[in-house]
Design a protein that fits this description.
The complex is a heterodimer.
Chain A: E1 2-6, H1 9-14, E2 18-21, H2 28-38, H3 40-46, E3 52-55, E4 58-60, E5 71-75
Parallel strand pairs in A: 1-5
Antiparallel strand pairs in A: 1-2, 3-4, 3-5
Chain B: E1 2-5, H1 11-19, E2 27-34, E3 44-49, H2 53-69, E4 73-79, E5 81-84, E6 88-96, H3 99-116, E7 119-125, E8 128-132, H4 136-146
The chains are: A alpha+beta, B alpha+beta.
Chain lengths: ~80, ~150
């Protein structure tokens, strides 16, 4: 079961901020394809400018394998301070 | 010390605690960011964080500041959740042997927190709610440190 977290505007757009995907997708790109298949605009937003992905709290670039208990977070451009 | 808090905090009390019992330090610089009332409109800010990850990334930025400016110590307190106009959002404290390092490290950390700390800011105003993303000026400020323009 892969846990997916959405932050900032992505959570508002999706209408959810946390969801479990079971069975676990094997890679980040498969996860994104699953999300895109059910919500095309959200899938596009996840691939949009400035959106980063973190797997188990580490920023990743490109596609990566996901363990069966991975936590995947999608992070829109940050705005602290 | 990196701390996220959903409660309002007292920047003065934090500063006093930070300054106490120092032997090497000759300079402490501080920055307080305050929730601004845009044009007098009643606004509420909402800051979304990724618990665990957000503190870790702010800690990484603080560590960079310590190495780059040879700091004795650094502290960051950042509000999360709902914040009213006039309340402190962020406090950065830097301690160094001499003032230049403390001033510059404080400036460096704020420029990095504005666009690289995993926090997402939503403004609730009279016209509705809107997510804020880094302004061009924030990215230009960050560029000052990357281009080697300072140090």
């Amino acid at each position: 079961m892969v846990k997916v977290l959405l932050f900032g505007r992505l959570g508002d757009q999706a209408g959810w901020r946390e969801r479990d995907f079971d069975p676990s997708p094997a890679t980040l790109s498969i996860l994104k394809a699953l999300i895109t298949a059910e919500d095309g605009p959200l899938g596009a937003a996840l691939g949009g400018a400035g959106v980063q992905a973190a797997v188990d709290r580490n920023i990743v670039r490109g596609d990566v394998a996901l363990t069966a208990t991975a936590e995947v977070a999608f992070l829109p451009p940050m705005s602290g301070g | 010390m990196i701390r996220l808090t959903e409660e309002a905090f007292d920047p003065g009390a934090e500063l006093n605690r930070f300054c106490a019992a120092r032997t090497r330090t000759g300079a402490v610089a501080s920055f307080v960011g305050i929730a601004r009332g845009e044009g007098g409109a009643a606004t509420v800010l909402e800051l979304d964080a990724y618990p665990g990850f957000t503190e870790g990334e702010i800690g990484r930025l603080a560590g960079e500041a310590v190495r780059r400016f040879g700091l004795d110590d650094v502290a960051v307190v950042h509000r999360v959740g709902r914040i009213s106009t006039g309340e402190a959002i962020v406090l950065v404290l830097t301690a160094s042997a001499h003032r230049r390092g403390a001033f510059e490290a404080c400036d460096f950390l704020m420029d990095h927190l504005k666009s690289q700390a995993p926090l997402w800011k939503k403004e609730h105003g009279p016209a509705g709610a809107e997510w804020v993303e880094p302004a061009a000026s924030d990215l230009a400020d960050l560029g000052r440190w990357q281009s080697g323009a300072i140090r």
